[in-house]
Structure to design on (634 residues):
């Protein structure tokens, strides 16, 4: 088991595409770490560089106390689970799980016994003699996990581990994955484009954009205090309200109404407030007519037009309002961004 | 209604069926019929039904078995060499990043040349005094001795059809999922292990198709031998022998018998490939089930 240290990592693909741009990242031993970002942000390249499937243009990768930057993937003692699982179609499940051990020249008896132990730990009893094509997506994913677990790596790397499962199975697999990681306590890095998945699974999240890390933090930090407007817009299942505003003598004004008083220099800002933290009330600084109501199950997203601004607010299911009704909004936990960066 | 539909179905199929019958079924049936006759154009009056007598004649004849052995030898050796070289070429073409089109085109040139033309260039090249290969590599005349003549025939065959093999195998290579190779690399598999344990199994269907096509083709080898040795010094293939009996000897009965035997051998080869090897191909309809 080991932590992962990445310093000044740069990867430039032929043709000048800068996939990673001087990345520094430190992942603690036993941590469940998410690389989150939109497609093309470099998160998969970063994972593959840690794995050794890509060679960095410059910078270094350390796993534990070893510099692995120039080591081939097989010598790094990390296991990877691929997005489409990459099971060998011509081998049985037990042979698939035991394959890494076969490469390490363990005797057939030993490695099959080990494969069966790991298999039953992951609920694969009775499937060991089958072939991958005969298994469901969820089962295949568990086989891929078992293959990773079986070789006792110092770190797991998961590439979009849940994206090939349907929505219901994904939730189940998410819980399973989190429990497994807790049990094994192995440093785990996973890539996802799904912010809900990252929030649910990870101990810490690195949010990436265009080859750079825009914020590293716990799910609570990243959700509650996004470091910049990019992260603010990316995290959260209902998009954060990012409203043009001004600060005058410490007072934060949106649509000429004072939302709060903060210790911020005067000037134009972007005011961020999550719809979950906007209360629909009789008395509030902002007033307007309800434009749309979107049902989210246990709550509804209400969009209110305030002086030409659309502001979202989440209301509980018994507090819904009819479109057209005039309401007041009371935003709390107001964040202020200047030039895209969080100032308060 | 049912009958109407059947009539329409037959009407729609009719043109294809008529053409197939005319160009394929009828010649086959006619050769089978001829093979059961004593039919020699040198003695046209004596045509009569003789049952399986022609088969007994051919199958108890040394010339036939020699030619059969030579054909098998050429087939096995040349297809084996082609498979290895073709795989190497396919890997090179698959991996090439620069001038990919140029490399592929250059590789395919031998396959684009008419076999007879290529065979003549080989013949001239191996002719003593005038041929550059004969001057450089051989004492005497390689095409006049059995072993060296067979070697030249196989060389010509391999040179000509390796590109075809490479092309089919390259299509198979493109089917190997990249992630599988990466996963094997993560597990610590070296290049050779990735090739034998991941690529070859994934390519198995493509390899079988390539082998089947080439084996069937090689078994009917004719033009290379016709040009290079004309079957001298016991280098005749079964097709050469059939040609000699049918066209030169004008013995339609014996010639047809040989044609039918070649047809049966080819059918047996195809059956062998499809039934025995083909059944275990991963990714086929049964999902690789045992």
């Amino acid at each position: 088991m080991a932590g992962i240290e990445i310093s000044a990592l740069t990867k430039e693909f032929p043709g000048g595409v800068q996939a990673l741009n001087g990345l520094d990242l430190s992942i603690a031993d036993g941590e469940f770490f998410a690389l989150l970002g939109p497609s093309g942000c470099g998160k998969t390249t970063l994972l593959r560089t840690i794995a050794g499937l890509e060679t960095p243009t410059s910078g270094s990768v350390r796993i534990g106390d070893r510099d692995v930057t120039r080591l081939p993937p097989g010598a790094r003692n990390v296991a990877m689970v691929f997005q489409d699982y990459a099971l060998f179609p011509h081998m049985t499940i037990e042979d698939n799980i035991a394959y890494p051990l076969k490469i390490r020249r363990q005797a057939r008896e030993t490695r099959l016994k080990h494969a069966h132990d790991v298999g039953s730990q992951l609920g694969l009893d009775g499937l060991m003699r089958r072939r991958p094509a005969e298994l469901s997506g969820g089962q295949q994913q568990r086989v891929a996990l078992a293959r990773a677990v079986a070789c006792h790596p110092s770190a797991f790397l998961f590439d979009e581990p849940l994206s090939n499962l349907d929505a219901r199975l994904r939730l189940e697999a998410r819980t399973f994955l989190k429990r497994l990681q807790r049990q094994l306590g192995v440093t785990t890095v996973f890539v996802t484009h799904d912010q809900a998945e990252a929030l649910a699974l990870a101990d810490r999240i690195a949010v990436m954009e265009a080859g750079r890390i825009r914020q590293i933090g716990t799910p609570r930090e990243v959700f509650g205090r996004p470091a910049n407007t990019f992260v603010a817009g990316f995290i959260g299942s209902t998009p954060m309200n990012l409203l043009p505003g001004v600060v005058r003598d410490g007072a934060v004004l949106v649509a000429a109404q004072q939302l709060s008083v903060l210790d911020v220099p005067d000037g134009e800002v972007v005011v961020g407030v999550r719809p979950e933290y906007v209360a629909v009330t009789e008395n509030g600084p902002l007033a307007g007519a309800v434009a749309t109501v979107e049902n989210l199950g246990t709550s509804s997203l209400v969009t209110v037009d305030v002086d030409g601004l659309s502001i979202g607010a989440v209301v509980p299911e018994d507090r819904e309002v009819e479109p057209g009704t005039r309401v007041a909004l009371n935003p709390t936990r107001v964040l202020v961004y200047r030039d895209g960066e969080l100032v308060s | 209604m049912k009958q109407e539909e059947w009539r329409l179905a037959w009407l729609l199929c009719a043109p294809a069926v008529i053409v197939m019958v005319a160009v394929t079924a009828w010649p086959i049936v006619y050769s089978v019929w001829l093979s059961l006759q004593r039919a020699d154009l040198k003695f046209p009056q004596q045509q009569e039904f003789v049952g399986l007598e022609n088969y007994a004649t051919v199958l108890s004849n040394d010339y036939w078995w020699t030619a059969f052995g030579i054909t098998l030898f050429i087939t096995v050796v040349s297809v084996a060499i082609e498979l290895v070289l073709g795989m190497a070429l396919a890997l090179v073409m698959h991996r090439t990043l620069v001038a990919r089109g140029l490399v592929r085109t250059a590789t395919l040139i031998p396959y684009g040349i008419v076999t007879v033309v290529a065979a003549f260039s080989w013949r001239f090249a191996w002719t003593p005094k005038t041929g550059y290969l004969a001057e450089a590599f051989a004492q005497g005349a390689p095409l006049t001795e059995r072993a060296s003549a067979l070697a030249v025939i196989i060389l010509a065959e391999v040179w000509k059809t390796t590109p075809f093999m490479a092309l089919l195998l390259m299509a198979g290579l493109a089917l190997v999922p990249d992630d599988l190779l990466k996963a094997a690399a993560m597990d610590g598999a070296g290049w050779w292990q990735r090739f034998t344990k991941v690529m070859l199994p994934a390519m198995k269907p493509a390899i079988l198709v390539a082998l089947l096509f080439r084996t069937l083709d090689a078994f009917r080898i004719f033009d290379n031998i016709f040009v290079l040795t004309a079957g001298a010094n016991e280098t005749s293939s079964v097709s050469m022998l059939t040609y000699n009996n049918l066209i030169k000897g004008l013995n339609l009965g014996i010639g047809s018998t040989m044609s039918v035997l070649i047809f049966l051998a080819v059918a047996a080869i195809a059956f062998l490939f499809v039934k025995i090897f083909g059944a275990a191909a991963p990714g086929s309809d049964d999902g690789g089930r045992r």
Remarks:
- Chain B touches chain A at residues 177, 179-180, 182-190, 193, 197-198, 201-202, 204, 282-283, 287-290 (CB under 8 Å).
- Chain B is about 75% helix and 0% strand.
